[in-house]
Amino acid sequence: MKDIRQAKFLRDFCLIADNMYRLGWDERNGGNISLLLDEDMNEYFDGVIREIPIAFDATPLVGKCFLVTGTGKYFKNIKDDPETNLGIIRIAPSGNVAELLWGWRDGGRFTSELPAHLMSHIARLSVDPQNRVVMHTHPNALLAMTHVHPLTTEAFTHTLWQVMTESIVVFPDGVEVLPWMLCGTNEIGEATAEKMKLARTVVWGLHGLYGAGRNLDEAFGLIETVEKAAQLFMMYNSTGLEHINYITDAQLWEIANFFKVTPKAGII
């Protein structure tokens, strides 16, 4: 058997989680990550530790394995003790049971947002078969921006694109936006999944955001760029000075054409 502690995907996951905590995105046990694994788990484990019910029918993902953060677990502890704070699960044939293959050695279980993650994985895989990551996090500036900015996809995306040149290049699909909804429910998971068919980033009003990507770096970098744009927006708004310089729609098209990206329709 291979030593799971030496697996690159586990080491990368721990590093990303540590960076998310260091940046202040994931206070206490706030936020969660799920990584769809391509590796053959039979090389690491030879049996199921226990079964955990899932309050969602994940039949489209039967047989797939995920590395997932645990409920009530602090991001700051993941790097030093991944086996307590993380788990590797496989979706059982019934579709509503997770087979625990490794982790949560203290008897823990997956994040309460797992159904929302699985719904988003299904949605993203339907438009991008190479998608592997879903991250939910609470970036400070982005969260603050949802308190002072209209919560519509069109307005939010346009503002973030106008703030800095890189925005439209990194997320030409824009950011989808949801109003405040109760977290931890299948309802917000379903709403997020529908938005995930349209973009890799979904803002949860007054809460945080979901970001998706083909790998951990891509998802992290996407969130990082959205947060940077939100931070700049909040910084210049806090000055009280007139906003006299911004990227025009014509310039946004110039950027998009130069970098050969297709902006979300209806924004510019």
Would you write up a description of this structure?
This protein is of the alpha+beta class. The protein has two domains: 111 residues, 3-Layer(aba) Sandwich (L-fuculose-1-phosphate Aldolase), CATH 3.40.225.10; 156 residues, 3-Layer(aba) Sandwich (L-fuculose-1-phosphate Aldolase). It has a nine-stranded mixed beta sheet, sandwiched between helices. Helix 4 packs across helix 8. It is elongated. It starts with 7 loop residues before the first helix and ends in a 9-residue tail after the last helix.
- Percent strand equals 15-25%
Strand segment count: 9
Unreliable sequence segments: none
Mean pLDDT: 97
CATH architecture title of the largest domain = 3-Layer(aba) Sandwich
Q: Which bin fits the share of residues in helices?
A: 25-40%
* CATH domain fold name of the largest domain: L-fuculose-1-phosphate Aldolase
| Overall CATH class of the largest domain | Alpha Beta
- Taking the alpha carbons of the first and last residues, their distance comes to 54 Å
**What strand order characterises the main sheet?**
2-5-4-3-1-6-9-8-7
Number of domains: 2
CATH H-tier superfamily of the largest domain: Class II aldolase/adducin N-terminal domain
Topology as a string of helices (H) and strands (E)? HEEEHEEHEHHHEHEEHH
Label the overall shape: elongated
Could you tell me the radius of gyration in angstroms?
A: 19 Å
The SS-based structural class is alpha+beta
Q: Please tally the helical runs, counting DSSP H or I stretches of 4 or more residues.
A: 9
Largest sheet: 9 strands, mixed
